[in-house]
């Protein structure tokens, strides 16, 4: 036996993994070639007119090993359909047009349902609160609410600065007294005095009742 023969025997056999990779590559190449050839055949006008469901190229199903035209007779026809749909889309569309149409209708219905749900979610979302514009407040616009304790748990609320916004003090006094059911009077400085602590109520009510008085224009003196 020559040295060259020894070298041949010494060469390592390809591993099982490498063989599998090579086989996989060959199958992939063969599949790509079939797809290309099938596409060419399906685009031929004479084939489309004569017999569009039976191209010259015979494609064998990897699931049942039968020609794909006979997959309906296999033991797992649904699996065969799924393989054909993912591998040869055009041929699947020719062989199973009703199934394809049904799938498209289901997808369209699902998409419509998703759009309706999205629209409902938008409608259910609370509207975004409009950002309040910052008002530049000057001393001449300020309205003051002062709370003073006279006796135990008895308070007097003094409201001043209303005349800056063109309000009639006497009419405003009567309106506040009626609104909150409290005694009231006007002191020597022209401010309204109210029985009880009405600071929180007035702070909320004044901007609603008199739009010229903004929230930023109200200052409350702590007790």
TrEMBL record:
Sequence segments annotated as region (Disordered): 1-40
Upper classification of the organism: Eukaryota, Sar, Alveolata, Ciliophora, Intramacronucleata
Gene Ontology terms: biological process: formation of translation preinitiation complex; translation reinitiation
Domain SUI1: 143-210
Sequence ranges of Low complexity compositional bias: 22-37
MF terms in GO: mRNA binding; translation initiation factor activity
Protein's UniProt name: SUI1 domain-containing protein
């Amino acid at each position: 036996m020559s040295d060259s023969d020894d070298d041949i025997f010494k060469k390592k056999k390809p591993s099982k993994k490498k063989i599998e990779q090579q086989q996989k590559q060959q199958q992939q190449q063969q599949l790509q070639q079939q797809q290309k050839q099938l596409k060419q055949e399906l685009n031929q006008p004479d084939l489309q007119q004569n017999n569009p469901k039976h191209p010259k190229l015979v494609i064998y199903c990897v699931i049942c090993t039968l020609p794909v035209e006979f997959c309906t007779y296999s033991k797992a026809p649904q699996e065969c359909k799924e393989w054909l749909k993912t591998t040869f889309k055009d041929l699947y569309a020719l062989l199973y047009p009703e199934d394809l149409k049904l799938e498209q209708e289901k997808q369209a219905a699902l998409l419509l349902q998703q759009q309706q749900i999205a629209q409902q979610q938008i409608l259910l979302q609370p509207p975004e609160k409009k950002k309040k514009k910052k008002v530049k407040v000057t001393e001449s616009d300020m309205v003051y609410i002062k709370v003073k304790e006279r006796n135990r748990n008895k308070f007097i609320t003094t409201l001043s600065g209303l005349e800056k916004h063109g309000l009639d003090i006497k009419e405003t006094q009567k309106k506040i007294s009626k609104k909150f059911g409290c005694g009231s009077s006007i002191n020597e400085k022209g401010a309204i005095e109210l029985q009880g602590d009405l600071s929180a109520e007035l702070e909320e009510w004044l901007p609603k009742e008199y739009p010229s008085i903004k929230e930023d224009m109200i200052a409350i003196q702590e007790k």
